[in-house]
Amino acid sequence: MDQRDTEARRGGDAEKHVAALLTPRGRGAVSTIRLCGDAALLHEPSPSLFAATNGKPLATQPLDRVIFGRWGVPDESHPAEDVVVCRVTSDIVEIHCHGGDMASARILTDLECRGCAIVPAIDLVARQTSRLDAECLDALSRAATLRTAAILLDQQSGTLLAAFEKLRSKLVQAATLDSRLSTLDCPELHELLRWANFGLHLTQPWRVVVAGRPNVGKSSLINALVGYERSIVFDQPGTTRDVVTADTALDGWPIQFADTAGLRDTDADDLESAGIELARRQLDEADLQLLVIDISQPPTAADEKLLADFPRAVVVANKCDLPTVWDDWFPAFATRVSALCGTGLDQLRTLISGLLVLERPPGGLPIPITARQVGLLRQIASAVEQCRFSDALKLCDELLA
Fold first, then answer.
1. pLDDT by residue (tens digit) across 185-214?
2. Tens digits of per-residue pLDDT, 84-143?
3. How, if at all, do strands 206-212 and 288-294 pair?
């Protein structure tokens, strides 16, 4: 099939056949693809994309029957894939293949060549339920810890929907009395927005950027905190030029540590200078800054400047297993640790977790969990503040989708 045939088929069948990868990206034993449309697409035109082990066309197989078979027309570069297929309804087929990206990408490409529109999973689910429910399910699939999954499950189970419907009910009343209301007391709206930043981090890890002068032990500290070697450890200044990240969980909250280039005034090459500039930008955008100092080496003017430049940073005094030579220079608020020996690491983990999550939500609390939800809630708050209650109601309807 040439490109024009493919494009023509896409245009004519885009709404008839739609597919999406349901499982989140990353490592996994199995990937699942959902196809909405006529199962005959897998067999027409010839050759068939799916060959069932029992030899029957998929469109004739019973519903909810697990069918083993092979996917694709094998050739030297693309051998057939072992798959498990199930017709969930007359127009929904689920295809289960090997985990990872390669097998699912091959299947989606084959479907697209047959004229199937490939969409994000959240869009496919939204066609069958609602945008809000699809967002909750998508967020739940991307939860990185049991703690965040429990909060997201609470939202998906109706907590968030009930809060939005309660907000809408209040806005309906306000819109009815539009010209007679000069203000609207809406604590539910303010409470939702109060938890907006927390809600977004349930699927996006809090970002902790670690900085300091070269060779103070930034990479070693991150390796010790996450429990495995992810950063580059070498005693040559300028080694870490790119931002290296490592994901972990502290107290059940997903955290991403970012190791940056050593901060120093340098006449070194442009590449290292670019790395230092990138480090400063990362610090500005961080949820939490860790500024590492080496208290086994005499303090310098550069240390003093860094402490002054990043006053909101958590100062980590590394190498406390060695004699301290900072004396009067030592910051009273610094946390003493030894990345090598493990001293003080548990206290530092507790400190980081406590600073990132200042307040823990009680069970049953509605929390917005996507940028779309937060953006619409902020627009609603602005409209309410300006007494544009009809506009706020329209925005709330969009929120509920």
1. 899 999 999 999 999 999 999 999 998 888
2. 999 999 999 999 999 888 899 999 999 999 999 999 998 988 888 889 999 999 999 889
3. parallel
Nearest residue to 69 via CA among 59, 78, 60, 80: 80
Phi-psi region of 115 (alpha: psi -120 to 50; beta: other; left: phi over 0): left
Sheet holding 30-36, edge to edge: 50-52, 67-71, 81-89, 92-98, 30-36, 18-21, 117-118
| Cβ atoms of residues 261 and 272 within 8 Å | yes
CA 60 – CA 57 distance, rounded (Å):
6
Residues 341-356 have a mean pLDDT of 96
Residue type, 294: D
pLDDT of residue 47: 87
Cis peptide before 45 (omega within 30 of 0): yes
